[in-house]
Design brief:
360 residues; alpha/beta; Aspartate Aminotransferase, domain 1; Aspartate Aminotransferase, domain 2; 7-stranded mixed sheet; 12 helices
Length: 360
């Protein structure tokens, strides 16, 4: 008589690394605490968003528009692209999964910088593909030449996170153009622009012009960061119609809820208030970056809504010191800490901790 066995998942499922979310702050009696661990927008929803979301809640008994037609039309008009070149999903992270599902066979290679967005190796492994992680330069920038050198006949996707999460630097248009000139036409080139609204640099990437010039380029964008809709999970891709259609084909039916679609539409209509908030966050980011450098920290160029501390073995100690001060940051064990730009008081506390911290 045979021994009963339990169902077993595919062999690579056990290799999927766990996603580590930013944890909430530890309560400190008598002290306001701040979460700086998830790159969230510290501002409340943009004007009109709560009202639009509330109206949508009243019809929660109905399925959402699976085609996200109103959102697609608004994005198409704003970006100057055909509706057929858009694909919406539950945050840009879902688009990563969908892209790999659509374009990778088991064993295919996906090239990306490391350290970069934590979801990349998770999604690659879940798809049964193989990660080719190319170390960042010492200054936290992508090494695009090394990434191009890593492309082989098994490469199906390359991903460029700009600005890079968690280190902060962004690639220039000239750097990206030179890299894309070396990417074969059959390889999908992702330009992950989750933080594009915060970029303030010379020769910044023009994602839309890049996508128009390259049929294999896909832009990933999100409403989670600058727009402050992290809790609603809305992201979108801009790609030529065949690629965008593949992303839509493998998407979860009804994935973007009615409330999320309504909130995203209302957020698009509040562009003036959006840029006021983004500019204020950029001003705070630059203040924090300057304060850290004045205190002797060699921090990478920050082009997102966060700063990076390369701490090595002192990572856990720095995270603990921040926690004691009532701010929680995102440590990457043995590498460093990413700290989101938050409220002014939170940023001031970060500077105080950084000035007093013993770097060993």
């Amino acid at each position: 008589m045979s021994t009963p066995s339990t169902p077993r998942p595919r062999s690579h499922i056990g290799d999927i690394p766990a996603y580590v979310p930013g944890k909430p702050p530890t309560p400190r009696p008598g002290l306001a605490t701040y979460k700086l661990s998830s790159n969230e927008n510290p501002y409340p929803p943009l004007p009109g968003v709560v009202e639009a979301a509330t109206r949508a809640v009243e019809s929660m008994n109905r399925y959402p528009d699976m085609g996200s037609r109103a959102l697609y039309e608004a994005l198409a008009q704003r970006l100057g692209v055909p509706v057929e070149d858009l694909a919406a999903a539950t945050g840009s992270v879902a688009l990563i999964y969908q892209l790999l599902q659509a374009f990778c066979e088991p064993g295919d290679e996906v090239v990306y910088a490391w350290r970069s967005f934590e979801a990349y190796p998770i999604a690659v492994t879940a798809a049964g593909a193989r990660s080719v992680q190319v170390p960042l330069r010492a200054d936290g920038h992508h090494d695009l030449d090394a990434m191009a050198d890593s492309i082989t006949e098994r490469t199906r996707v390359v991903m460029v996170c700009t600005p890079n999460n968690p280190t902060g630097p962004a690639v220039t248009q000239a750097e990206l153009d030179a890299f894309l000139a070396r990417v074969p036409a059959h390889v999908v080139a992702v330009v992950d622009e989750a933080y594009l609204e915060f970029v303030r640099m010379d020769d910044a990437v023009d994602g839309l012009a890049t996508y128009r010039a390259h049929p294999n380029v896909v832009l990933f964008r999100t409403f989670s960061k600058a727009y402050g809709l992290a809790g609603f999970r809305v992201g979108y891709a801009v790609a030529h119609a065949e690629v965008a259609g593949a992303l839509r084909a493998v998407s979860l039916p009804f994935g973007v809820s009615s409330v999320a679609q309504a909130a995203a539409l209302a957020s698009l209509e509040a562009s003036e208030a959006l840029m006021e908030r983004v500019d204020a966050l950029v001003t705070e980011r630059d203040r924090v970056e300057s304060g850290l450098r004045a205190a002797g920290w060699d921090v990478p160029d920050a082009q997102g809504n966060f700063v990076w501390f390369a701490l090595g073995e002192r990572t856990a100690a720095f995270a603990a010191a921040c926690d004691e001060a009532g701010i929680v940051v995102r440590p990457f064990a043995g590498e460093g800490c990413r700290v989101s730009i938050g409220e002014v008081e939170a940023n001031d506390r970060l500077l105080e901790v950084a000035r007093a911290f013993d770097r060993g």
